[in-house]
Amino acid sequence: MKKRSMPLSKVYGLLEPGPVVLLTTAWKGQPNVMPMSWLTMLEFSPPQFACVVSNRNHSFDALRKTRQCVVNIPTAELAEQVVGCGNTSGRKVDKFKRFGLTPLPAATVEAPLIDECYANLECRVIDTRMVNKYSLFVLEATKAWIASGAKRPRTIHHEGRGMFIVAERRIKLPSVKL
Amino acid sequence: MKKRSMPLSKVYGLLEPGPVVLLTTAWKGQPNVMPMSWLTMLEFSPPQFACVVSNRNHSFDALRKTRQCVVNIPTAELAEQVVGCGNTSGRKVDKFKRFGLTPLPAATVEAPLIDECYANLECRVIDTRMVNKYSLFVLEATKAWIASGAKRPRTIHHEGRGMFIVAERRIKLPSVKL
Q1: Measured between beta carbons, which residues in chain A are less than 8 angstroms from residue B42?
Q2: What is the pLDDT of residue A178?
């Protein structure tokens, strides 16, 4: 998918609406991917956010040890692969091969970009003090990519038990000081 | 709006998809409300989540001092009031009166429920160690209310600059172990 560099100051607009993302890591040359919905913005610029990665996830060790990852944002076309990635473990399966996802080299981290995702955020872990208690990692985006001409992407938002909201309808309201 | 008590174990399904919420607080008998999009689940049961409330917000002091709040979830019918609440300050305005929102007494906290919101989560602040650095409060829901027969609510998800995704289309995918 053809992508362009995106200003880091615009990253919040991709994550604030709460889409499911695919977190990629790499450890000893072995890439892995997991879906993630438990994420919040913390700061606009530089874009910082916090996300929950459980120590039951195979990605946990790679994230904690390498302190690098990529937050990839899929659209509805990838919904089945997202669910599949959530129902398999990188301990047993190469999820990229299994689900036909294409890893591409990132510019600033060792973890791969997922070509099929419309946006990719290269991130570094900047704070692990909340990991032991909440499995909460604080990330800062170091580089952002977005598909050329990506307008109104059909992101998916998990409601639990396989139900997803699909971002199709949008409204614009004037943000006027009253 | 007629509401019923909701099992706390189901609360994550309301917040995980990332809707804008209206945070209500009360301080010295004065209720206030602010929109909030920077929130993530931390734990399923008891439902714990983390949210960002800046010390520039009038709600910050009430939340920190009372350690109580209600997370109210609006639907698209309330979109203009949500934006209005974000463009005014409780320092100057009674937002309930200004925007026609009805405060109702909660069962376990002093902060009010917003009658017009389809779901209301009564919460206590359980951890403030991330407030100084990230304005991040850790909350635990103590009581949850949902509108009777609320199915597929049209929540709104903020993309920035007045753009919102409206939850209208949903898909269900089987969550099968592969």
Answers
A1: 38, 52, 134-136
A2: 47
